[in-house]
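Ticket #4471: structure export looks truncated?
Reporter: QA, pipeline team
Priority: medium

Steps to reproduce: submit the single chain below to the structure queue and open the exported record.
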Amino acid sequence: MAKVASELRNQMDAMANGEPIPVIVRRKEGFFRAQALPNLVEVEQSFQLFPGEALSVNAAEIDALSRQDGVEKIWPDLPVQAWLDTSVPKISAPAVWEIGLRGKGIKVAVVDTGIDSSHPDFAGRILATQSFVGGTAEDDNGHGTHVASIVAGSGAKSNGKYVGVAPEASLFVAKVLRADGGGSMSGVMAGIEWAVLEQKVQIINLSLGGVGSCDGTDALSVMCDEAVTQAGVIVCVAAGNTGPDERTVGSPGCARRVITVGAIDDSGAIARFSSRGPTADGRVKPDIVFPGVNIVAAQATGTRMGQVVVEGYVTANGTSMATPHASGVAALMLQANPNLNAEQLKTQMLAGAIDLGVGPNAQGVGQGDALKAYEQVTGTPTPTPTPDPPPTTPPDTTPSEPQGCLAALFGRG
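Actual output as written to the record:
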């Protein structure tokens, strides 16, 4: 049974009641489903980015599958969860807006708990939705709406106060997590394929993942890497909220081609909850860090995630909140240079990061910065603005909250 992943073998050893367990099968190239899979198994989901299926089988059926010539690998279909735990100015997004870049025309998929389509901050920019957990794609948890707001919220409901990183980007929403924030690898994979193959998105945000160190060879990580290499899609993934110990980055944060994002607080310190590398096979992760503590963003109607700041907005913490900052910066970079491929964009985003002076398996290359990423894309530094003349009247020194500040606090998942 060499084709059976070790995690699945452990599940099989622990399975004493004969109940089916969910698995994901990868077929060898050139083998059709009818050739590789016995008639006794019922397929629940088929994939196209790699030749494979999701199904539920018992131990005897897994044994039969492992002996099929056309089966390359069998993975467990493991559970995934939403990664929850004065940010936009901190990463210099307003400076890029002043250049004229706000993400207009860039297609971003938020693969999460859905979205509150009635929230004014998304008006006219939700171009497609699909639920992979039954029902509609409306958000009954709150996580997906919060994440989408950090990527691309317009701030309309707050009169321009709580604005996302790329506030004119187009949104495509795949609901793959239930109201309790849980889901399955195969469901997330189905959402990725919908976004890549049917909607032709340019960026995918995955503020979710599984618990436990991984080496990037699990089904979901492989699917994410295929989205990058086959379709050229930029995939931004949360590192996870199981820090501060090392080797805590789970799937799909351990994938090789994605941009894996850790979290920092307002002071630039790595958030305690932010998962650390290395991966199970010794690679540095995360790749980069963005703000993920006390991030204010849109609240889905009727949900209780986070702490209410003002009507329609809540604050939350987590690498879930850091990741959409990266997705928003990627949208600004693509608008600046639509010819960037996924590898080039990742390289340039990382090259523009600010070193925080901590270990690479905590910070990656450092804190992401929209303006420095823009400078990497264009190849020239942005001119230093001419200082304003001194005011003729004393300035108003009343403290105010930074324009565009977003937020997030929902614990460790």
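Status: closed, not a bug. The export was complete when the record was re-opened. Leaving a note from the reviewer for reference: Confidence is low (pLDDT under 50) at residues 384-413.
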